[in-house]
């Protein structure tokens, strides 16, 4: 997903991917407008201006904090996100109430801050919009992508610190240099509020790289980030302005191959929550299920071993050995909708020779004009096209269309929606829902607020 955020009342904000440790360091929230529906933002030390965020990790505990509020804790390799679901999030409450911990989850929600009375400390939290149960592979892909986005923000922030401009002048200069709108707006605010230093950026960079190395299996745990945003030290800006590493290639286990997964992912609803895949701390989070839809992925879809989370200490940030071993599991995906769509079309096509033969015989016997028969054939062809425009699994069809249209740099979101509505004969809202589902399932991401790229 993007490090850009859309601005303005009524516009949907892009969900950021960032690690819990940076989110915990944030203590500033603000709105750029007095309009009633103007979005509220939480600004982090790297300049991420977050209205919505997307996090994947292990749900380690759920606690009833009042009669109508539940608190959940979702751990990533660097720390923990805190969720609060109340009466206005009934589906999310139902999911948390029925969830067996520990289990892998993906959460999209609003970023919030809270400062208790008589306290100088500011706490961050997420008000969930959706919660889905996912698998280890989805968690690993998210970890690598969050590391990539963190490194990009660090490079942008380091470049901004080195500039002379500040405030609105810095914002304009960053946008002119190609930095996205959301990040260009957040960096000047972060520089002014946090006084972010190269020392903090260097420490956060090490944390992000460690998280990717955990996925790759080259390190066991992530060192805690115990540096304040304004800490002084010997780090140099010149070492931070270039990302200098392709995090996305650190591990095949992070889902770098083109195949997508339709894991044990479940919608955030009371119905989904009533059917948890695990019944205790030691039960299966998910079971490997289906064959690979890619012929080149030989053997990957044949694994049917279940994966175990094992015992999990809610207070621990580091993931246990058993959890890291789940990286080796592969989950196949069967997109059968294409096959199912083709069958009715094939049936219609098979009837054409009979109709054509009948038409020829009629013409020879009666010397009737042939025009009505081509019209009937056109009707048959249109019927086949109509059938092909109605996929049973719209999300899978949209992901396939994304793969088809992607030229390597992603596909424009509006163009994808327009093409999908024309090809599949569905509403724009249905396509948007399918895109959001693909984002939640880790099948695609947003390099910026106008582009989608399949994974």
Mind explaining what this structure looks like?
By secondary structure, the chain is of the alpha+beta class. It has 3 domains: 1-314, OB fold (Dihydrolipoamide Acetyltransferase, E2P), CATH 2.40.50; 337-388; 394-454. 39% of the residues lie in helices and 18% in strands. It is built from 13 helices and 14 strands. It has helices at 20-25, 90-98, 136-161, 167-176, 181-194, 198-216, 270-273, 321-325, 337-366, 372-388, 394-405, 413-424, 428-440, and strands at residues 15-16, 28-31, 40-43, 49-50, 52-66, 69-76, 79-85, 103-114, 123-133, 284-287, 306-308, 411-412, 444-448, 451-454. The strands form 4 sheets. Strands 1, 5, 6, 7, 8 and 9 form a 6-stranded mixed β-sheet that branches. Strands 2-3-4 form a 3-stranded antiparallel β-sheet. A 3-stranded antiparallel β-sheet has the order 12-14-13. α9 packs antiparallel against α10 and α11 (394-405) packs across α13 (428-440). It is globular and about 60 Å long. It starts with 14 loop residues before the first strand and ends with a strand. The relative contact order is 0.12. The model is unreliable at 1-9 and 248-388 (pLDDT under 50).
